Amino acid sequence: xxxxxxxxxxxxxxxxxxxxxxxxxxxxxxxxxxxxxxxxxxxxxxxxxxxxxxxxxxxxxxxxxxxxxxxxxxxxxxxxxxxxxxxxxxxxxxxxxxxxxxxxxxxxxxxxxxxxxxxxxxxxxxxxxxxxxxxxxxxxxxxxxxxxxxxxxxxxxxxxxxxxxxxxxxxxxxxxxxxxxxxxxxxxxxxxxxxxxxxxxxxxxxxxxxxxxxxxxxxxxxxxxxxxxxxxxxxxxxxxxxxxxxxxxxxx
Length: 252
Prior knowledge:
The chain is of the alpha/beta class. It has a single domain (20-251), classed as 3-Layer(aba) Sandwich (Rossmann fold), CATH 3.40.50.150. It is built from seven helices and nine strands. Strands 1, 2, 3, 4, 5, 6, 7, 8 and 9 form a nine-stranded mixed β-sheet that branches. Strand 2, helix 4 and strand 3 (123-126) form a beta-alpha-beta unit. The relative contact order is 0.16.
């Protein structure tokens, strides 16, 4: 059974990265996370793109069979900033033993209810990832999260501390470019496609900046892949990094 009330022992070495106002903003959206036409509609459109990238990276990292239905069988996975479990549930279906961590208790509660309804055994925890004594994981993901944290170096260090020595990390985040300011904030939030106040452009991080943070944490960043939008294709993986991008990281 999924457990949103799990309370692992605290690890005092973890730095504080949660912004209470950000946690409150996303906590208010908890009831709509699983509504593909609700406030998280854009995440539902984005999720297949993220999963395609994730599956490709998992197969490459562990040398799996691309036709295998459960490439994460026998692996542990941690999704940080998991929301109501939009990524956790597919990872569980790919065979992983999944833990989701989120700053908003409302989100982990909604995630646990949904996972139980789907018959998935996923552990959900509300809290600060760097302060939770939850061990290490083969796969660590944080999708659209780093732009919301208070201390980016501390957050990356906390993720690195949860990654097993031969593990794989996958991150996604908006790029800080004029295009992302215009389209992701001006257009998407202005037209109600994304809830207003979700993004703050000054907090977006470039691939170069993210690479430096990962390097400081002892990790090597893979080649970034962009997420682009075209009316005839929708959201899709691309070489264009101007709006949003995904990267892998692993220990050197």
